[in-house]
Protein backbone atom coordinates (compact mmCIF):
# COMPACT_ATOMS: atom_id res chain seq x y z
CA UNK A 1 0.00 0.00 0.00
CA UNK A 2 1.32 3.44 -0.87
CA UNK A 3 1.87 6.01 1.85
CA UNK A 4 -0.84 8.33 0.56
CA UNK A 5 -3.34 5.48 0.46
CA UNK A 6 -2.35 4.62 4.02
CA UNK A 7 -2.91 8.20 5.14
CA UNK A 8 -6.30 8.50 3.44
CA UNK A 9 -7.47 5.13 4.72
CA UNK A 10 -6.36 5.89 8.25
CA UNK A 11 -8.03 9.29 8.29
CA UNK A 12 -11.36 7.86 7.10
CA UNK A 13 -11.12 5.08 9.69
CA UNK A 14 -10.86 7.59 12.53
CA UNK A 15 -13.84 9.82 11.85
CA UNK A 16 -16.47 7.31 12.92
CA UNK A 17 -19.15 8.77 15.17
CA UNK A 18 -18.65 5.85 17.56
CA UNK A 19 -15.49 4.68 19.34
CA UNK A 20 -15.04 1.05 18.22
CA UNK A 21 -11.54 0.19 19.48
CA UNK A 22 -8.57 1.23 21.60
CA UNK A 23 -7.67 4.89 20.92
CA UNK A 24 -10.42 4.98 18.27
CA UNK A 25 -8.25 3.05 15.85
CA UNK A 26 -5.01 4.72 16.89
CA UNK A 27 -5.54 8.49 16.74
CA UNK A 28 -7.71 9.28 19.81
CA UNK A 29 -9.54 11.86 17.69
CA UNK A 30 -13.24 12.71 17.73
CA UNK A 31 -14.95 15.00 15.24
CA UNK A 32 -17.66 16.41 17.50
CA UNK A 33 -17.12 19.00 20.19
CA UNK A 34 -16.91 17.77 23.79
CA UNK A 35 -17.96 19.19 27.17
CA UNK A 36 -15.52 21.73 28.52
CA UNK A 37 -16.25 21.93 32.25
CA UNK A 38 -17.61 19.54 34.88
CA UNK A 39 -17.20 18.61 38.53
CA UNK A 40 -18.31 15.98 41.02
CA UNK A 41 -21.66 17.78 41.29
CA UNK A 42 -22.16 19.23 37.81
CA UNK A 43 -21.88 17.92 34.27
CA UNK A 44 -21.93 14.19 35.13
CA UNK A 45 -25.09 12.85 33.46
CA UNK A 46 -24.68 9.40 35.02
CA UNK A 47 -22.18 7.20 36.79
CA UNK A 48 -22.25 3.48 37.45
CA UNK A 49 -20.42 0.94 39.57
CA UNK A 50 -19.18 -1.83 37.27
CA UNK A 51 -18.79 -5.57 37.58
CA UNK A 52 -15.43 -6.72 38.94
CA UNK A 53 -12.38 -4.77 37.79
CA UNK A 54 -11.17 -3.59 34.41
CA UNK A 55 -8.21 -1.59 33.12
CA UNK A 56 -9.46 -1.49 29.56
CA UNK A 57 -11.34 1.46 28.07
CA UNK A 58 -14.96 1.15 26.93
CA UNK A 59 -15.93 0.92 23.27
CA UNK A 60 -19.07 2.54 21.83
CA UNK A 61 -21.33 1.42 19.00
CA UNK A 62 -24.84 2.52 18.01
CA UNK A 63 -25.79 4.06 21.35
CA UNK A 64 -24.34 1.24 23.44
CA UNK A 65 -21.27 1.00 25.64
CA UNK A 66 -19.32 -2.26 25.95
CA UNK A 67 -16.81 -2.95 28.71
CA UNK A 68 -14.63 -5.88 29.74
CA UNK A 69 -13.75 -6.90 33.29
CA UNK A 70 -12.55 -9.77 35.45
CA UNK A 71 -14.50 -10.95 38.47
CA UNK A 72 -13.42 -12.83 41.59
CA UNK A 73 -10.32 -12.87 43.78
CA UNK A 74 -8.54 -15.17 41.33
CA UNK A 75 -9.93 -13.46 38.21
CA UNK A 76 -12.30 -16.40 38.13
CA UNK A 77 -14.59 -15.04 35.42
CA UNK A 78 -14.15 -12.93 32.30
CA UNK A 79 -17.03 -10.50 31.78
CA UNK A 80 -18.43 -8.31 29.01
CA UNK A 81 -20.99 -5.74 30.13
CA UNK A 82 -23.33 -3.77 27.84
CA UNK A 83 -24.79 -0.41 28.94
CA UNK A 84 -27.13 2.10 27.35
CA UNK A 85 -25.07 5.17 26.44
CA UNK A 86 -27.87 7.64 27.19
CA UNK A 87 -28.76 6.38 30.67
CA UNK A 88 -26.02 4.02 31.87
CA UNK A 89 -28.62 1.28 32.38
CA UNK A 90 -27.26 -2.25 32.04
CA UNK A 91 -28.73 -4.02 29.00
CA UNK A 92 -26.95 -7.36 29.46
CA UNK A 93 -23.82 -9.05 30.69
CA UNK A 94 -21.93 -12.07 29.40
CA UNK A 95 -19.65 -14.05 31.71
CA UNK A 96 -17.56 -17.22 31.42
CA UNK A 97 -14.95 -19.00 33.51
CA UNK A 98 -11.35 -17.91 32.93
CA UNK A 99 -9.06 -20.45 31.27
CA UNK A 100 -6.13 -19.45 33.49
CA UNK A 101 -6.85 -18.03 36.91
CA UNK A 102 -4.47 -15.67 38.68
CA UNK A 103 -4.58 -13.34 41.65
CA UNK A 104 -6.72 -10.24 41.10
CA UNK A 105 -4.79 -7.40 42.67
CA UNK A 106 -2.66 -4.39 41.77
CA UNK A 107 0.34 -6.61 40.99
CA UNK A 108 -0.98 -7.85 37.64
CA UNK A 109 -3.21 -6.75 34.78
CA UNK A 110 -6.98 -7.08 35.17
CA UNK A 111 -8.95 -7.07 31.92
CA UNK A 112 -6.33 -4.77 30.45
CA UNK A 113 -6.88 -5.21 26.68
CA UNK A 114 -9.67 -3.04 25.24
CA UNK A 115 -12.29 -4.90 23.14
CA UNK A 116 -13.23 -4.06 19.56
CA UNK A 117 -16.77 -3.79 18.20
CA UNK A 118 -18.40 -3.76 14.77
CA UNK A 119 -21.89 -4.24 13.40
CA UNK A 120 -21.81 -7.98 14.05
CA UNK A 121 -20.23 -8.51 17.45
CA UNK A 122 -17.99 -7.46 20.32
CA UNK A 123 -14.56 -9.15 20.34
CA UNK A 124 -12.68 -9.29 23.64
CA UNK A 125 -9.26 -10.63 24.57
CA UNK A 126 -8.27 -11.30 28.20
CA UNK A 127 -4.82 -11.80 29.70
CA UNK A 128 -5.94 -15.34 30.64
CA UNK A 129 -5.63 -16.21 26.94
CA UNK A 130 -9.39 -16.23 26.39
CA UNK A 131 -10.70 -14.62 23.20
CA UNK A 132 -14.46 -14.37 22.71
CA UNK A 133 -16.95 -12.92 20.26
CA UNK A 134 -20.42 -11.95 21.56
CA UNK A 135 -23.25 -10.58 19.41
CA UNK A 136 -25.16 -7.40 20.23
CA UNK A 137 -27.81 -9.39 22.10
CA UNK A 138 -25.19 -10.83 24.46
CA UNK A 139 -25.04 -14.30 22.87
CA UNK A 140 -21.72 -16.08 22.31
CA UNK A 141 -20.55 -16.40 18.71
CA UNK A 142 -17.27 -18.21 19.40
CA UNK A 143 -14.58 -18.65 22.05
CA UNK A 144 -10.91 -19.66 21.99
CA UNK A 145 -8.19 -20.20 24.56
CA UNK A 146 -4.91 -19.11 22.97
CA UNK A 147 -2.80 -20.64 25.73
CA UNK A 148 -4.25 -24.07 24.92
CA UNK A 149 -3.38 -23.59 21.25
CA UNK A 150 -0.01 -21.86 21.45
CA UNK A 151 1.29 -22.20 25.03
CA UNK A 152 0.84 -20.32 28.29
CA UNK A 153 1.87 -16.70 28.62
CA UNK A 154 5.11 -16.27 30.54
CA UNK A 155 4.66 -12.85 32.08
CA UNK A 156 4.37 -12.29 35.82
CA UNK A 157 2.31 -9.13 35.53
CA UNK A 158 0.01 -10.03 32.65
CA UNK A 159 -0.65 -8.74 29.16
CA UNK A 160 -2.16 -5.44 28.10
CA UNK A 161 -1.94 -5.06 24.31
CA UNK A 162 -5.37 -4.37 22.83
CA UNK A 163 -6.60 -6.00 19.62
CA UNK A 164 -7.00 -4.03 16.40
CA UNK A 165 -9.44 -4.45 13.53
CA UNK A 166 -8.23 -5.30 10.01
CA UNK A 167 -11.13 -5.85 7.66
CA UNK A 168 -12.84 -9.08 8.80
CA UNK A 169 -10.03 -9.99 11.21
CA UNK A 170 -8.92 -9.01 14.69
CA UNK A 171 -5.18 -8.58 15.18
CA UNK A 172 -3.52 -9.56 18.47
CA UNK A 173 0.05 -8.84 19.56
CA UNK A 174 0.94 -11.62 22.02
CA UNK A 175 4.30 -10.54 23.34
CA UNK A 176 5.75 -12.11 26.48
CA UNK A 177 8.86 -13.93 27.71
CA UNK A 178 7.90 -17.13 25.93
CA UNK A 179 7.35 -17.68 22.19
CA UNK A 180 5.63 -14.50 20.99
CA UNK A 181 3.56 -13.83 17.91
CA UNK A 182 1.28 -11.55 15.95
CA UNK A 183 -2.04 -13.22 15.23
CA UNK A 184 -4.98 -12.61 12.90
CA UNK A 185 -8.30 -14.24 13.82
CA UNK A 186 -11.36 -14.46 11.59
CA UNK A 187 -14.10 -12.34 13.15
CA UNK A 188 -16.86 -14.75 12.11
CA UNK A 189 -15.35 -17.99 13.40
CA UNK A 190 -12.31 -17.18 15.55
CA UNK A 191 -10.14 -19.35 13.31
CA UNK A 192 -6.50 -18.39 12.81
CA UNK A 193 -6.00 -16.63 9.48
CA UNK A 194 -2.26 -16.22 9.95
CA UNK A 195 0.34 -16.28 12.72
CA UNK A 196 3.73 -14.55 12.55
CA UNK A 197 6.53 -14.96 15.08
CA UNK A 198 7.53 -11.90 17.09
CA UNK A 199 10.53 -11.20 19.36
CA UNK A 200 9.96 -12.33 22.96
CA UNK A 201 9.69 -9.28 25.19
CA UNK A 202 7.69 -7.74 28.01
CA UNK A 203 5.49 -5.32 26.11
CA UNK A 204 2.04 -3.73 26.29
CA UNK A 205 2.09 -1.73 23.08
CA UNK A 206 -0.97 -2.26 20.88
CA UNK A 207 -0.82 -2.63 17.09
CA UNK A 208 -2.49 -0.19 14.74
CA UNK A 209 -4.03 -1.10 11.42
CA UNK A 210 -4.14 1.03 8.31
CA UNK A 211 -6.99 -0.18 6.10
CA UNK A 212 -7.24 -0.26 2.34
CA UNK A 213 -10.37 -1.97 0.99
CA UNK A 214 -10.58 -4.32 3.95
CA UNK A 215 -6.86 -5.05 4.20
CA UNK A 216 -3.68 -3.09 4.62
CA UNK A 217 -0.79 -2.76 7.04
CA UNK A 218 -0.34 -3.70 10.68
CA UNK A 219 2.23 -1.58 12.53
CA UNK A 220 3.73 -2.65 15.85
CA UNK A 221 6.07 -0.48 17.93
CA UNK A 222 7.79 -2.62 20.57
CA UNK A 223 10.98 -4.34 21.72
CA UNK A 224 13.33 -1.74 20.25
CA UNK A 225 11.85 -1.59 16.78
CA UNK A 226 8.87 -0.61 14.65
CA UNK A 227 7.71 -3.33 12.24
CA UNK A 228 5.09 -3.25 9.50
CA UNK A 229 3.24 -6.41 8.42
CA UNK A 230 0.90 -7.21 5.56
CA UNK A 231 -2.55 -7.39 7.19
CA UNK A 232 -3.71 -10.07 4.74
CA UNK A 233 -0.81 -12.49 5.19
CA UNK A 234 1.27 -11.44 8.21
CA UNK A 235 4.38 -11.11 6.04
CA UNK A 236 6.86 -8.49 7.19
CA UNK A 237 6.98 -5.43 4.96
CA UNK A 238 9.69 -3.45 6.71
CA UNK A 239 11.33 -2.96 10.08
CA UNK A 240 13.15 -0.06 11.69
CA UNK A 241 15.37 -0.57 14.73
CA UNK A 242 17.54 1.63 16.89
CA UNK A 243 14.88 2.23 19.55
CA UNK A 244 14.64 1.45 23.26
CA UNK A 245 11.89 1.72 25.86
CA UNK A 246 9.02 1.55 23.33
CA UNK A 247 7.25 -1.17 25.32
CA UNK A 248 4.09 0.63 26.53
CA UNK A 249 2.89 3.56 24.36
CA UNK A 250 1.33 2.59 21.04
CA UNK A 251 2.22 4.27 17.72
CA UNK A 252 0.15 7.10 16.27
CA UNK A 253 -0.18 7.84 12.56
CA UNK A 254 -0.93 11.28 11.16
CA UNK A 255 -0.79 11.40 7.38
CA UNK A 256 2.60 9.96 6.47
CA UNK A 257 4.08 10.70 9.90
CA UNK A 258 4.26 7.88 12.44
CA UNK A 259 4.80 9.01 16.03
CA UNK A 260 6.53 6.60 18.39
CA UNK A 261 6.44 6.95 22.16
CA UNK A 262 8.96 5.43 24.57
CA UNK A 263 9.59 5.41 28.28
CA UNK A 264 13.01 5.83 29.85
CA UNK A 265 14.71 2.43 29.55
CA UNK A 266 15.16 0.45 32.77
CA UNK A 267 18.25 1.54 34.74
CA UNK A 268 18.83 4.53 32.47
CA UNK A 269 20.03 7.82 33.98
CA UNK A 270 16.81 9.55 35.09
CA UNK A 271 18.64 12.89 35.05
CA UNK A 272 19.14 12.53 31.32
CA UNK A 273 15.70 13.98 30.70
CA UNK A 274 14.41 11.67 28.00
CA UNK A 275 15.15 9.22 25.23
CA UNK A 276 15.53 9.76 21.46
CA UNK A 277 13.26 6.73 20.97
CA UNK A 278 10.43 9.28 21.17
CA UNK A 279 10.46 10.09 17.51
CA UNK A 280 8.65 10.61 14.24
CA UNK A 281 9.11 8.20 11.34
CA UNK A 282 8.64 9.49 7.81
CA UNK A 283 6.64 6.87 5.92
CA UNK A 284 6.79 8.97 2.76
CA UNK A 285 10.54 8.41 2.45
CA UNK A 286 11.75 4.83 2.08
CA UNK A 287 15.48 4.11 2.12
CA UNK A 288 16.59 0.56 1.26
CA UNK A 289 13.05 -0.70 1.77
CA UNK A 290 12.42 0.92 5.14
CA UNK A 291 11.32 4.39 6.27
CA UNK A 292 13.63 6.92 7.87
CA UNK A 293 13.42 9.03 11.00
CA UNK A 294 11.99 12.48 10.39
CA UNK A 295 13.12 13.61 13.85
CA UNK A 296 14.06 12.28 17.29
CA UNK A 297 13.24 14.13 20.52
CA UNK A 298 16.02 13.49 23.01
CA UNK A 299 14.46 15.28 26.01
CA UNK A 300 11.00 13.67 25.79
CA UNK A 301 9.54 10.64 27.56
CA UNK A 302 6.21 8.93 26.99
CA UNK A 303 5.68 6.36 29.72
CA UNK A 304 2.06 5.23 29.53
CA UNK A 305 -0.02 7.54 27.35
CA UNK A 306 0.51 7.31 23.61
CA UNK A 307 1.40 10.49 21.70
CA UNK A 308 -1.37 12.47 19.98
CA UNK A 309 -1.50 15.04 17.20
CA UNK A 310 -3.59 18.20 17.06
CA UNK A 311 -3.06 20.60 14.18
CA UNK A 312 0.64 21.10 13.54
CA UNK A 313 1.71 19.91 16.99
CA UNK A 314 2.54 16.57 18.56
CA UNK A 315 1.96 16.00 22.29
CA UNK A 316 3.92 13.63 24.54
CA UNK A 317 3.25 13.28 28.28
CA UNK A 318 5.41 11.46 30.85
CA UNK A 319 4.31 9.45 33.89
CA UNK A 320 5.04 12.48 36.07
CA UNK A 321 2.66 14.62 34.01
CA UNK A 322 5.36 16.54 32.14
CA UNK A 323 3.92 17.55 28.77
CA UNK A 324 6.04 18.29 25.72
CA UNK A 325 4.51 20.06 22.74
CA UNK A 326 6.57 19.58 19.58
CA UNK A 327 6.39 20.83 16.04
CA UNK A 328 5.02 17.94 14.00
CA UNK A 329 7.30 18.57 11.01
CA UNK A 330 10.59 19.31 12.73
CA UNK A 331 10.36 17.94 16.28
CA UNK A 332 11.23 21.35 17.71
CA UNK A 333 10.00 21.68 21.31
CA UNK A 334 7.50 24.52 21.59
CA UNK A 335 7.12 24.11 25.33
CA UNK A 336 7.49 21.75 28.28
CA UNK A 337 5.03 22.10 31.17
CA UNK A 338 3.78 20.14 34.16
CA UNK A 339 0.07 19.34 33.94
CA UNK A 340 -0.33 18.94 37.69
CA UNK A 341 -1.57 15.35 37.36
CA UNK A 342 -0.22 11.96 36.28
CA UNK A 343 -1.69 10.59 33.05
CA UNK A 344 -2.02 6.85 32.59
CA UNK A 345 -4.58 7.11 29.79
CA UNK A 346 -4.01 8.57 26.33
CA UNK A 347 -5.43 12.10 25.76
CA UNK A 348 -8.43 12.75 23.52
CA UNK A 349 -8.24 15.31 20.71
CA UNK A 350 -11.44 17.19 19.87
CA UNK A 351 -11.29 19.98 17.30
CA UNK A 352 -8.63 22.40 18.62
CA UNK A 353 -8.54 21.01 22.17
CA UNK A 354 -6.63 18.23 23.88
CA UNK A 355 -8.09 16.53 26.96
CA UNK A 356 -5.51 15.10 29.40
CA UNK A 357 -7.09 12.65 31.85
CA UNK A 358 -5.20 12.35 35.13
CA UNK A 359 -5.27 9.10 37.07
CA UNK A 360 -6.55 11.07 40.08
CA UNK A 361 -9.75 12.20 38.34
CA UNK A 362 -8.45 15.58 37.23
CA UNK A 363 -8.80 16.50 33.55
CA UNK A 364 -6.75 19.34 32.07
CA UNK A 365 -8.07 20.76 28.79
CA UNK A 366 -5.57 22.64 26.62
CA UNK A 367 -5.99 24.68 23.48
CA UNK A 368 -3.84 23.41 20.66
CA UNK A 369 -0.96 25.58 19.55
CA UNK A 370 2.62 26.55 20.21
CA UNK A 371 1.76 28.29 23.50
CA UNK A 372 0.64 26.54 26.69
CA UNK A 373 -2.98 27.62 27.21
CA UNK A 374 -5.19 25.89 29.79
CA UNK A 375 -8.86 26.14 28.84
CA UNK A 376 -10.28 24.26 31.83
CA UNK A 377 -9.32 22.04 34.76
CA UNK A 378 -11.98 19.64 36.03
CA UNK A 379 -12.17 17.41 39.12
CA UNK A 380 -14.27 14.27 38.70
CA UNK A 381 -14.39 13.65 42.45
CA UNK A 382 -13.40 15.36 45.68
CA UNK A 383 -9.66 14.64 46.09
CA UNK A 384 -10.13 14.55 49.87
CA UNK A 385 -12.86 11.91 49.57
CA UNK A 386 -12.29 9.76 46.46
CA UNK A 387 -14.92 7.09 45.70
CA UNK A 388 -13.94 3.62 46.87
CA UNK A 389 -14.94 0.39 45.09
CA UNK A 390 -18.36 -0.73 46.30
CA UNK A 391 -18.21 -4.44 45.51
CA UNK A 392 -14.73 -5.29 44.21
CA UNK A 393 -12.46 -6.98 46.76
CA UNK A 394 -8.79 -7.21 45.90
CA UNK A 395 -7.06 -10.54 46.39
CA UNK A 396 -4.15 -10.52 48.84
CA UNK A 397 -0.71 -12.07 48.41
CA UNK A 398 -1.62 -14.71 51.03
CA UNK A 399 -4.35 -15.87 48.63
CA UNK A 400 -1.97 -16.09 45.68
CA UNK A 401 -2.20 -19.84 45.38
CA UNK A 402 -5.61 -21.42 45.05
CA UNK A 403 -6.69 -24.88 43.90
CA UNK A 404 -8.41 -25.29 40.57
CA UNK A 405 -11.07 -27.90 39.91
CA UNK A 406 -8.39 -30.30 38.78
CA UNK A 407 -6.43 -29.91 42.01
CA UNK A 408 -3.50 -28.01 40.54
CA UNK A 409 -2.62 -24.55 41.77
CA UNK A 410 -2.60 -21.21 40.03
CA UNK A 411 -0.59 -18.19 40.98
CA UNK A 412 -0.79 -14.46 40.56
CA UNK A 413 1.87 -12.10 39.28
CA UNK A 414 4.72 -10.51 41.17
CA UNK A 415 5.02 -7.01 39.79
CA UNK A 416 2.65 -4.09 39.70
CA UNK A 417 0.70 -2.96 36.71
CA UNK A 418 -0.56 0.50 35.93
CA UNK A 419 -2.58 1.53 32.93
CA UNK A 420 -3.04 -1.19 30.46
CA UNK A 421 -5.32 -1.27 27.48
CA UNK A 422 -3.48 1.59 28.88
CA UNK A 423 -0.22 0.12 29.80
CA UNK A 424 1.58 -1.21 32.94
CA UNK A 425 3.41 0.89 35.44
CA UNK A 426 6.28 -1.56 35.80
CA UNK A 427 6.61 -0.45 39.41
CA UNK A 428 6.57 -3.82 41.14
CA UNK A 429 7.78 -3.69 44.75
CA UNK A 430 10.55 -5.83 46.20
CA UNK A 431 9.56 -9.42 46.78
CA UNK A 432 11.11 -12.49 48.28
CA UNK A 433 13.82 -12.62 50.92
CA UNK A 434 17.12 -10.85 51.04
CA UNK A 435 16.26 -7.20 51.58
CA UNK A 436 15.53 -4.57 48.91
CA UNK A 437 15.06 -6.15 45.51
CA UNK A 438 15.15 -9.64 47.00
CA UNK A 439 12.88 -11.01 44.29
CA UNK A 440 15.19 -9.77 41.55
CA UNK A 441 18.25 -11.08 43.37
CA UNK A 442 16.62 -14.50 43.61
CA UNK A 443 15.89 -14.48 39.90
CA UNK A 444 19.46 -13.47 39.04
CA UNK A 445 20.85 -16.11 41.41
CA UNK A 446 18.79 -18.75 39.63
CA UNK A 447 20.38 -17.69 36.33
CA UNK A 448 23.88 -18.26 37.75
CA UNK A 449 24.13 -21.82 36.46
CA UNK A 450 27.71 -22.48 37.57
CA UNK A 451 27.24 -20.84 40.98
CA UNK A 452 30.31 -18.63 40.79
CA UNK A 453 28.44 -15.46 41.83
CA UNK A 454 28.94 -13.83 38.44
CA UNK A 455 26.53 -13.79 35.51
CA UNK A 456 28.40 -14.33 32.28
CA UNK A 457 27.07 -13.00 29.00
CA UNK A 458 25.52 -16.40 28.30
CA UNK A 459 23.84 -16.57 31.74
CA UNK A 460 22.27 -13.10 31.75
CA UNK A 461 18.46 -13.49 31.34
CA UNK A 462 17.15 -12.36 27.97
CA UNK A 463 15.13 -9.51 29.54
CA UNK A 464 18.32 -7.94 30.89
CA UNK A 465 20.49 -8.20 27.80
CA UNK A 466 19.25 -4.89 26.29
CA UNK A 467 20.06 -3.20 29.62
CA UNK A 468 23.57 -4.60 29.91
CA UNK A 469 25.36 -1.42 28.87
CA UNK A 470 23.52 0.49 31.64
CA UNK A 471 24.11 -2.00 34.46
CA UNK A 472 27.55 -3.38 33.60
CA UNK A 473 29.51 -0.59 35.26
CA UNK A 474 32.98 -1.98 34.62
CA UNK A 475 32.17 -2.88 31.01
CA UNK A 476 33.43 -6.48 31.15
CA UNK A 477 30.29 -7.98 29.61
CA UNK A 478 29.24 -9.77 32.80
CA UNK A 479 27.46 -8.89 36.06
CA UNK A 480 29.28 -9.33 39.35
CA UNK A 481 27.71 -9.33 42.85
CA UNK A 482 28.09 -5.58 43.37
CA UNK A 483 26.51 -4.76 40.01
CA UNK A 484 23.60 -7.11 40.65
CA UNK A 485 23.05 -5.70 44.15
CA UNK A 486 23.08 -2.10 42.89
CA UNK A 487 20.65 -3.03 40.13
CA UNK A 488 18.23 -4.74 42.54
CA UNK A 489 18.34 -1.86 45.03
CA UNK A 490 17.68 0.68 42.28
CA UNK A 491 14.81 -1.44 40.98
CA UNK A 492 13.24 -1.72 44.45
CA UNK A 493 13.64 1.98 45.30
CA UNK A 494 11.77 3.11 42.21
CA UNK A 495 8.92 0.71 43.03
CA UNK A 496 8.59 1.34 46.75
CA UNK A 497 5.21 3.11 46.44
CA UNK A 498 3.69 0.75 43.90
CA UNK A 499 0.91 -0.56 46.14
CA UNK A 500 -0.44 2.85 47.14
CA UNK A 501 -0.13 4.26 43.61
CA UNK A 502 -1.94 1.41 41.87
CA UNK A 503 -5.22 1.12 43.77
CA UNK A 504 -8.61 2.46 42.78
CA UNK A 505 -9.88 5.00 42.05
CA UNK A 506 -7.57 5.25 39.06
CA UNK A 507 -8.59 6.69 35.72
CA UNK A 508 -7.33 4.18 33.17
CA UNK A 509 -8.76 5.84 30.11
CA UNK A 510 -11.50 7.83 28.43
CA UNK A 511 -13.47 7.61 25.19
CA UNK A 512 -15.90 9.97 23.47
CA UNK A 513 -18.88 9.88 21.14
CA UNK A 514 -21.79 12.17 20.26
CA UNK A 515 -20.64 15.00 22.50
CA UNK A 516 -20.21 12.70 25.52
CA UNK A 517 -17.06 11.68 27.38
CA UNK A 518 -16.88 8.35 29.21
CA UNK A 519 -14.19 8.11 31.89
CA UNK A 520 -13.35 4.73 33.38
CA UNK A 521 -11.72 3.79 36.65
CA UNK A 522 -11.10 0.19 37.60
CA UNK A 523 -14.58 -0.16 39.08
CA UNK A 524 -16.67 2.80 37.91
CA UNK A 525 -17.79 4.53 34.72
CA UNK A 526 -18.68 8.22 34.45
CA UNK A 527 -20.56 9.88 31.59
CA UNK A 528 -19.82 13.59 31.05
CA UNK A 529 -22.28 15.51 28.89
The amount of beta strand, in percent, is: 25-35%
Question: What general outline do the C-alpha atoms trace?
Answer: globular
The spatial strand order of the largest sheet comes to: 1-27-28-29-30
Q: What is the alpha-carbon Rg in Å?
A: 22 Å
Helix coverage percent? under 10%
Count of discrete domains = 2
Q: What is the CATH superfamily of the largest domain?
A: YVTN repeat-like/Quinoprotein amine dehydrogenase
For the record, give the distance between the C-alpha atoms at the N and C termini, rounded to a whole number: 40 Å
Q: Would you tell me the structural class of the helices and strands? A: mainly beta
Could you please describe the fold and organization of this structure?
- Helix content is 9%, strand content 35%.
- With 529 residues, it is mainly beta.
- It folds into 2 domains: 3-385 and 502-528, YVTN repeat-like/Quinoprotein amine dehydrogenase (Methylamine Dehydrogenase, Chain H), CATH 2.130.10; 438-494, Orthogonal Bundle (Recoverin, domain 1), CATH 1.10.238.10.
- A 5-stranded mixed beta sheet has the order 1-27-28-29-30, with no helix packed on it. A 4-stranded antiparallel beta sheet has the order 2-35-34-33, with no helix packed on it. The protein has a 4-stranded antiparallel beta sheet with strand order 3-4-5-6, with no helix packed on it.
- Helix 3 (438-447) runs antiparallel to helix 5 (481-494).
- The two termini are 40 Å apart.
- Mean pLDDT is 86; it is low at 1-16 and 402-436.
